[in-house]
Amino acid sequence: MNAPSPRHLVDAGPLVAAYLPRDIHHAWSRAAMQGAGGVLYTTETILAEAAHFLKPAPRSLQALITTVHSGRIRLLSIFPTHLPRIAELIRDYPERADLADASLVVLSELHPRATLLTIDRRDFSVYRRADGKPVPCLFPD
Questions:
Q1: Whole-angstrom distance, CA of residue 90 vs CA of residue 93
Q2: What would be the CATH architecture of the domain defined by 8-131?
Q3: E runs forming strands in the chain
Q4: pLDDT tens across 19-59, in order?
């Protein structure tokens, strides 16, 4: 039996903001993540990026790790299978795309109906999937 297709993907920004009460996007991130209901999906690269930004706040980092361990946030592996596509995205968007963003674009290509929770309007409003369509995103107002 196949697992259900993800409905919501999550970027590092909301993961960081959700666990830092003083972050400007904290309330939005918490509400968006709770409003998504069910499981949120991301990549190992996004978790590593969020962990890097949460390093100065060890309790917040521990809370994020606990949430991932609980299964509320699940990691989908795209490496090494999709490295050629990631390299293509980084080449096509040299001023914008990093490994983390490219991993989410690939995840969106694999799960085209999923909505990405992100605060990165600047980049994700520009990126296009292989089919030419934008990544469906939920941004803060």
A1: 5
A2: 3-Layer(aba) Sandwich (3.40)
A3: 8-10, 40-42, 73-75, 115-117, 137-138
A4: 999 999 999 999 999 999 999 999 999 999 999 999 999 99
What tokens appear for 43 in the block? 């990549």
Q: Which residues of 46-70 are buried (b: 16+ CB within 10 A; e: fewer)?
A: bbebbbebbeebeebbeebeebbee
Residue type, 79: F
Cα separations in angstroms, 69 against 6, 34, 65, 74, 113: 18, 17, 6, 8, 25
Task: In whole angstroms, give the CA distance from residue 64 to residue 51.
Answer: 8
Question: Three-state SS across 58-70?
Answer: HHHHHHHHHHHHH
pLDDT above 90: percentage of residues in the chain: 95
Q: Which amino acid is at 123?
A: D
